[in-house]
Amino acid sequence: MNINAFVILPGSKTGTSVRLKAKTIRELQLEKVQLETENKEMEKKLQQLRSNMSREKEERRKSSAYRWKSGRAGPMTVQARVLSQSKASNNKV
């Protein structure tokens, strides 16, 4: 008997196993090969993306004519409300 022909199912009692059919084993092996090839393709794409981002970052660093100043999204502070209201009242006059 081949030990690899058995699998322990999740949620089953400890030590309980079910014999796999030969067709199922072949399907699992094909799926494994397919997942490995997809994994290699994704790793290649990830490496390409990293190199592109690195190149773009270097280009931005070299041509740093201006810098982006990020702000925070969220509710306005009291000072911001007062300032916006005073600007609005100045425009009315």
From TrEMBL:
TM annotation in the entry: none
Spans annotated as Disordered: 42-93
InterPro entries per the UniProt record, alphabetical: ZBBX
Compositional bias annotation for Polar residues: 82-93
Extent of Basic and acidic residues compositional bias: 53-62
The protein, known as: ZBBX protein
Organism: Chroicocephalus maculipennis (Brown-hooded gull)
Encoding gene per record: Zbbx
